[in-house]
Amino acid sequence: MAHFAFGGRLHKTSPVPKTMKTILLKAVVIFSALLQSTSALSIPDPKDGHRASIVEASSKLIRNVNRTYSVRDQMFVLNPGPEVSTEWMLYFEHLVKQATALTATTNFNASKVQMFLEDRLPLRVEADFQRAYKELADTGMMPAPLALDSSDENFGAMRLSILGNNLKLVHAGEYADYLWDIPFPLFQDVCGEPTLASTLSSHKLFVADLSDYGELTDEAAKNSKYIPNVVGFFCNNIKKRQLLPLAITLVDSKLTYTKADSR
Q: What residue stretch is flagged as signal peptide (predicted)?
């Protein structure tokens, strides 16, 4: 007789009625039939074309295998499961697409670019770098680095790269103390919306909240170099297809700056 511990007491299980056994047996039979009928990866459809044919063929090759993962000289045993193989057509096509994309971004003038820049060493100040890369861009061997572009358009574009790791959507009621300082004409110009309310309801306003980054300032050098606490607002301008900076707030001074302010 089976027993289960619960709440500090032992309870004997009641015998399962015959009707319940019958129901369970039927359920098992039905479930087994369903598994057999859906064992394939997907249901083939002649109209699906090339990809569906590959999926159907690949589904018949999938097998669970013993899998391991190596870290230096240690071997870890993983749960058995399907293993990716380059013999699978879909995976092979994926690798080909990746290789094609990498080839498209390869600069075959890399050695010439290196020699060009080495001839201009030493580069000591920012102006030296700007001049060298501008001259390099004029040769046509490579475009000027985006870091040399100080425009609002490029600043917004950089937020869509690794620099925008904390970018998030602004909802109604959030950051109201900062946003109410922004003139309405700027919403039309930057966001393509007439008001703050319409910008929020259209889900076009985003924020990069760095309001607590000041604590990362090096105390030993705070008199000459520091990290300010800032909050930056950006708009997804659908018509221009760009993420554009709307305003930046210096949290400690509670001042909000826009492109309409004097530089």
A: 1-40
Strand ranges inside the chain, DSSP E: 3-6, 9-12, 64-65, 68-71, 74-77, 81-82, 167-169, 205-210, 230-237, 242-250, 255-257
CB 237 within 8 A of CB 192: yes
Q: Find where tokens 């020699």 sit.
A: 115
Q: What is the pLDDT of residues 173-189, one digit of tens each?
A: 999 988 988 888 999 99
Tokens of 94: 């994926």
Residue 112: CB atoms within 10 Å: 14
Backbone angles phi, psi at 49, to 5 degrees: 85, -155
Please give the C-alpha separations between residue 210 and each of 38, 71, 167, 201, 215, in angstroms, as whole numbers.
Answer: 51, 36, 10, 24, 11
DSSP secondary structure letter of residue 85: -
Residue 176, H or E segment = helix 176-179
127 token code pair: 């102006």
Residue 39 clears pLDDT 50, i.e. is over it: no
Determine the residue type at 217: T
CB 132 within 8 A of CB 142: no
Q: What is the 8-class DSSP label of residue 215? A: G
CB atoms within 10 A of CB 113: 14
- 10-36: pLDDT as tens digits: 444 445 455 555 555 555 445 454 444
Average pLDDT, the chain: 77
Do 211 and 231 touch, CB atoms closer than 8 A?
Answer: yes
Q: Check whether 204 has a pLDDT greater than 70.
A: yes
Which architecture, in CATH terms, is 152-257?
Answer: Roll (3.10)
- Domain positions in the chain are 64-105, 110-148, 152-257
